[in-house]
Amino acid sequence: MRDDGSQGDTLSRIAAALERLAPPPAPEPTFAEASAFVWHPDPDRLEPVETVNRVDLVQLIGIDRAKDTLLANTLQFAHGFGANNALLWGARGMGKSSLVKAVHAEAVARGLPLVLVEIAREDLGSVGRLLAILGRAADRRFLLFSDDLSFSHDDTQYKSLKAVLDGGISGRPGNVILYATSNRRHLMPRDMIDNERSTAIHPGEAVEEKVSLSDRFGLWLGFHPCSQDEYLAMVRGYCDAYDLTIAADELRAEAVEWQATRGGRSGRVAWQFFTDLAGRHGIAV
Fold this sequence. Notes:
Elements: H1 4-21, E1 36-40, E2 45-48, H2 64-78, E3 86-90, H3 96-109, E4 114-118, H4 127-136, E5 141-146, H5 157-166, E6 176-182, H6 190-199, H7 203-215, E7 219-223, H8 228-241, H9 248-262, H10 267-280
Parallel strand pairs: 1-4, 3-6, 3-7, 4-5, 5-6
Antiparallel strand pairs: 1-2
Helix pairs in contact: 2-3, 6-7, 8-9, 8-10, 9-10
InterPro entries: DUF815
Organism: Paracoccus marinaquae
GO molecular function: ATP binding
């Protein structure tokens, strides 16, 4: 005959032991301690970032239209007005992620309650849990940021991204907006789209599932390779910002030689050249 009382005690002890082994739930973040956080799942937590690696908005040269458009959209959102999710796509090193961080800094400098939250592409599967946390902080506005976003052939993370953009049944919290950067306009590799078109029973529907992901961003901002004049203007802008004095002819010659060794021009190449130049002139950056 079973001793039900003894069995119940055993189950209770097992349950208590498992509860002790399980990690305690992470405390709700205190968003007043920082203006930027990085999301880490398993266990879920928002890690504050004391100093964000970024450049000032005025130092982003050659992308004026994108800068003005994204700043206006960000300020509208930070004020609680209508604003669009944004996809910044195009050439590498032209300031896409720098612009996102710079407009966030500008909003914070204006005293607006905007918090930057970075989420890695590989963590998009947990974005629903993140949105639940952010949605409870009604006194803050959140700029959810995913950098260098793209998807491979067997990647299903894009479905989680669609939930952020569309909101699903419960809806995306009204205090959250998404900015993403990518080298691809449609986020999917072209051969993946072509393969779907050639093998599907209904090619149009199969391609639409993946291509339409970009269409869910209300704001598209394209970044294109810069001209030599724009590249030199970026270099000169950095020199002015850090009070580095150098003859114009010498600066031009060195900057052109530097970009020739790199095989291309971009905002990143301009900054890398200036970093080297500043070091040679005894200036910290």
